[in-house]
Amino acid sequence: MAAKQGLPTLALRVLEEALGMGLTAARDTAEAVAAEGAYYLEQVTVTEASEDDYEYEEIPDDNFSIPEGEEDLAKAIQMVQEQATDTQILEQKTVLPSKQPVPEVIEDFLCNFLIKMGMTRTLDCFQSEWYELIQKGLTELRDLGNVPDVYTQNMLLENENKNLKKDLKHYKQAADKAREDLLKTQKERDFHRMHHKRIVQEKNKLINDLKGLKLHYASYEPTIRVLHEKHHTLLKQKMLTSLERDRAVGQISGLQATLKNMEMGHNYHASEIRVVPKREKENALEGPTQKGLREAREKNKSNTKIKDNTKDSEFPTDMQPNPNLYLYKENICPAKVDYKLNNIFRLHELPVSCIIMHPCKDILISCGEDRLWKVVGLPKGNVLLTGFGHTDWLSDCCFHPSGNKLATSSGDTTVKLWDLSKGNCILTFEGHNHAVWSCTWHSCGDFVASSSLDTTSKIWDVNSERCRCTLYGHVDSVNSIEFFPGSNTLLTGSADKTLSVWDARTGNCEQSLYGHMHSVNDATFTPRGHMIASCDACGVIKLWDFRKLLPIVSIDVGPSPGNEVNFDSSGRVLAQASGNGVIHLLDLKSGQIHKLMGHESEAHTVVFSHDGEYLFSGGSDGTVRTWS
User: Basic and acidic residues bias located where (predicted)?
Assistant: First the structure.
C-alpha cells in the first residue's frame, strides 16, 4: 500500500523534473524569444520546497527473487502484482506539454519598436515614465495584456522582407557586373575577330606582293644573262686591244731604232720609204678597236661642242591664261558617277603603273613594270606603238603640250624623251641616285621636272640637255610632281607626309602643306587650278585651297592605300585608285562617294577621258579596264 501511495508522488516528481518546476520552461521560452530579437516580461511565482517533507521511495530491483524459506503464496502474489504495476508505470511514456510561444507584452513591444527606429531619447523618456508609474502603483501589469501575434508576425515578415530586399539588391549588382563582363567579353571577341580578319587580309596581300616580286625578279634573269655576255665580249675586246697595243709598241720601237741609226750615219737600205701624213700614219698603226674608240671620242667631243654652244632655255614670264578656267561654266550638265565596266585590255605582263590621255586625240599611253610603254587606240584598245629602252620598270609618263613627244620616268634612275612619230628615244636625262617616281612637262614644252626616291626633284632643260635646278627640302622619297597649269609653280608630294609648292625659276620652296598622317602617294591640281587633291598610304583624301594654301576637307576611304588621284575635265568628280582594287568616285558638289568594283587585284592608276564619258584604270594584273 505504501507503494501505491507513493505512485502519484513519483509521477509528479518525474513531471516536475521534465518541466523544470515550470521555471525552466519559462526561462527557455524567454531565451528562445530573446534570440529572435524580442524581449518579454513575465510574472512568475516561485515556491520554496522543503527537502525534509519529501518522501523518498526505494525502487525495487527488476531481478526480484523470492528468498528461500519464505515462500508464502499470498505474499508472492502481492509482490508480483507490485512488480507488474511498477513495470507499467515505467513503460508509460511521459508526454511533455509543448512549449507555447509566449506573447510579447505591450511595454516590451514599444521598447523594441523604439530601439529598432533608433529613437533613443524617446525610449529613455518612455522607460523613465513607465517604471515611475509602476513604482507608484498607478499601473498594473496584468491589466495591460499582451501584443497580438499579428504584430509580431508583421515584424518578422518585415525583417524577412528587408533581408530579401538586401539579397535582391546583391543579386542585381551581381547581374549588372555579369552583364558588364559579358559586354566587355563581346567587345574583346569582336576586336580579336576584326584583328584576325585584318591579319588574314594583310597575309593575302603579302602573298600577292610576294608573287609579284617573284615575277619581277624573274624578269631580271634575261638581263643578267645579257650583261654576262657583254662582260665576256668586253674581256675579249680588252685582250685584243692589249695585243694590238703591244704590236704597235714593237713597231714604234723598231722605227725609233731605224731613225737613230740613220742619224748616226749608218747605211740603211729600206725596200720602200714613203712619207705619209701624221693622221694617216696613226690610222695605219692603230687596230680596229682603237679606231672605234677614237671615233667615239671624236663624236663625243663634237656633241660636247654643240651642247656648249646651245644656250639654256628661259622660263616664260608672260604665261597664257589657263584654257580650263571657263570650262566649268560651259559644262553645266550634271557630273557623271554611274560608270560600269565596259571592256578589259590586257596590255602588259606585269603591273600597269601609269595611264595618261593624249591632249588632242582619242589615244592613251600605258606604262608597265615590264619596261614597256604602249600607245593604245580607243575605243578598240589596239596597240599602235610600243616603246622600249628603259632597263627597269616604268613609273610615270607625261605628254608634251603639243602631244608629239613623251617623257617617261623609270626605276633605272633616268628620264627619257621620246618622239612619238618614230617611237625613238631622242634624249636621256641622268642625274638621280635612285629610282625616279614621277615626271611632268612645263606648259611651254622646254622643261621637264622629275621626282625621285633620293628625296630630290630636278628640273631639266630640253634644249641645253642638262639639269637646270635640283630641289632640296623633302626628307623622304618624293612620290609625285606636277606643274601648275600655265605657270612656273611646281607641286610635290612626299613620303615625309607633306606637300610642297616650289618656284621653278629659283628652286625655292614657297610653301609646305601639313595634314597627312601617312606617306603622300599622289597630288594633283584641278583643271581650273584653284584646288589640290592628295591621297596617302592609308586611303585618306585631302582637298586643299590653292589660293589660301589651307585644307578644305579630309575624306577617309581607307584603310587600303590610295595610289593615284585625278579630276575629270570639269573638276567636279575626283577619282582615286585604291590598293584593294576599288575605284572611289567623289562628287565634290554632293559629297557622295561611289565605288567601282571590277579589279581583281590592286588598282594603280586612273584617268578620265576628255569628255568625261569614259574612265580608264590600270591594275597590278597588267590590264587596263574601261568604264562607261
Answer: 272-284, 292-314
pLDDT digits (tens, 9 = 90+) for 112-144: 888 888 899 999 998 888 888 888 877 665 556
pLDDT for 566:
94
> Considering only CA atoms, which of 490, 488, 494, 491 is closest in space to residue 474?
494
- Pull the grid cell for residue 217: 625578279
Residues with Cβ within 8 Å of 4's Cβ and at least 6 positions away in sequence, in order, are 85
Written as nine digits, the cell of 476 is: 623622304
Q: What's the CA gap between 458 and 430, in Å, rounded?
A: 10
Predicted confidence at residue 232, as pLDDT, reads: 81
CA angle centred on 265, ends 260 and 271, rounded to 5°: 75
Rounded Cα gap, residues 503 and 521, in angstroms:
21
Q: Which DSSP letter does residue 253 get?
A: H
* Cell numbers for 350: 606585269
Q: Report angle CA 356, 507, 397 to the nearest 5 degrees.
A: 15
Calpha distance 504→467 (Å, rounded): 12
Cα 79 to the center of its chain, rounded Å: 109
Strand intervals (E) in 327-377? 341-346, 352-357, 363-368, 372-377
Q: Which residues pair with 554 in a beta bridge?
A: 542
**C-alpha cell at position 555:** 575624306
Residues 6+ apart with CB under 8 A from 446: 313, 461, 462, 463
Q: What is the pLDDT of residue 310?
A: 65
Tally Cβ neighbours within 10 Å of residue 416: 23
The predicted pLDDT at position 286 comes to 52
Spans in the chain with pLDDT lower than 50: 1-41, 51, 64, 95-96, 266-285, 304-307, 327-330
Reference 375, options 334, 403, 337; nearest CA is 403
| C-alpha radius of gyration, the chain, whole number | 58
Looking at residue 295, its pLDDT comes to: 65
The answer to whether 355 and 616 have CB atoms below 8 angstroms apart is yes
User: What is the structure's pLDDT at 21?
Assistant: 39
Give the span between the Cα atoms of 590 and 288, in whole angstroms: 73
3-state secondary structure of 532: strand
Residues with Cβ within 8 Å of residue 432, at least 6 apart in sequence? 413, 414, 450, 452, 453, 454, 456, 458
